[in-house]
Amino acid sequence: MNDLQIGLTDTTTQTEVLIIGAGPTGLALACQFVRYGVDFVIIEKNQGVTPYSKALGVHARTLEIYEQLGLAQSAVAQGAIAAKVHLLKGGEVRAKLDLSNLGKGLSPYPYVLFLEQSKNEQLLYDFLRRNGKTVRWQTELEHFSQTEDKVTAQVKRADGASQRIEATYLVGCDGPKSPVRHALGLEFSGSTFERVFYVADAQIAWNLDRDGMYACLSKESFLVFFPLKGENRYRIVGTFPEEFSKDDGDVLYAEIEQRIQEQAELKLDIHTVEWFSTYKVHTRHVSRFSTGRCFLAGDAAHIHSPAGAQGMNTGIQDGYNLAWKLALVLKGRANKAILDTYNEERLENAKHLLQTTDRLFQLAAGDQWLFAFLRTQVLPHVANFILSLEPVKKFLFPRLSQISINYRYSSLSQHAGDEGLKVKAGDRMPYFLMEGKSIYDKLHQPKFHLLLFSNTPNDFQSLNTELDSQTLEFIDFNIIPLYPQVSAAFGMNHTFNVLLRPDNYIAFISAEVSLNRAKNYLKNLTK
Hints:
Layout: E1 8-20, H1 24-36, E2 40-44, E3 57-58, H2 60-69, H3 72-78, E4 80-81, E5 84-89, E6 92-98, E7 113-114, H4 117-130, E8 136-137, E9 140-146, E10 151-156, E11 162-172, H5 179-184, E12 188-205, E13 213-217, E14 222-227, E15 233-239, H6 253-264, E16 269-286, E17 290-291, E18 294-296, E19 302-303, H7 311-330, H8 340-365, H9 369-387, H10 390-401, E20 433-434, E21 437-438, E22 448-454, H11 469-472, E23 475-481, H12 484-490, E24 496-500, E25 506-510, H13 516-524
Helix pairs in contact: 1-4, 1-7, 8-9
């Protein structure tokens, strides 16, 4: 008997998708599979959801995804809205910025929500359990192989027993050191910031109002206090100067607290420290998001600076993009060629994200004289005025909140008909209210959505009869009055229709009042 056979169970588990890793990316992907009726197995080497807060910011686009799962209200109730930012210099508040409604009219969630990664994971895990699913905790991937037809993985349980899992597809959501990525031999190129970052969750006693976050402005580094749920709880994030020579794993908490005291220049008492960590920031992305029947998502595919709190949100959106495509292929509704668009769409986004977060980091903490001058001498005086300008809000919020992410260049985006319009194929469906209700209320079903906007909706009710029972399983059809806010959002004042992908990105916009184009679009997915 060889070593592999020792402890090997007799059974082989068969499933449609094997997910490696149950962090926020893997759990969110699993939740999407529940929506689409995809069978999956999700394994995680740890014993449960993380007890640590880790990632903190939850953006509007993620909350819009949570809304489809029925989790948005719970997330907001458990989190803290980023209401204000106080800019500190020399221990004094030099400016107060109101962020509580930064994205008004752009999303149902016009703010940044502070909700720890541990609570996000628990929300998602509870959703799985309510739907009869679970995670195989304390189960680790040993190795895997793939053929034209399937992926075969060997996993090891906590009791030491090994088990074989056969899946049609595998998704590695297993973090920055991703064994799946290494096994696939995918390049993970990029760079590393030399400075050591620190992070701590603790209670703080000070004389400052608890109505927002505090950012300390300095020439060579940054220090930010983020409010958390609970009495006087804050997340503290900052950097050591470049000349600080210790490796990140050798830094003592006493050194972190000393650095905080020096940077803040405030009278404050930090106590009840829940956890702390130090690290160096890497900015890297894979050369491809997939190889054969295996895919990567989240930190396994891209890592970057914490500027803008983009990481956890981006991983959740990776899964949101991939889930519906895998579901269509597994159900025979689309040719497997559609899976190539996952790499096509998300790799481009990862490249752009790394550039954006690098620029944000340089602005927040870069030691070049121009950035330091703008940060310390100019920003406190002009920030309030700049953020009061509507054009600035409409530029800044979509980029921060990830609602501006688009797939205009994707092969799934058909641009015939969107010439001269504000909105293009590949854009996220714009948000607006209709009689006080969100347009997104109509977009919860895990299907394509065909929306016909018309001032004479009764004239087109007959189109419903053209949808046979098979098509109805695939597409949700709504006739909606051409409200002024619809015309304003799209720049169209006459009857038109929009086909939305299951992830609520626009497939096409058309003035043709028939179902022909939608049917042809869906038919082409099977070719």
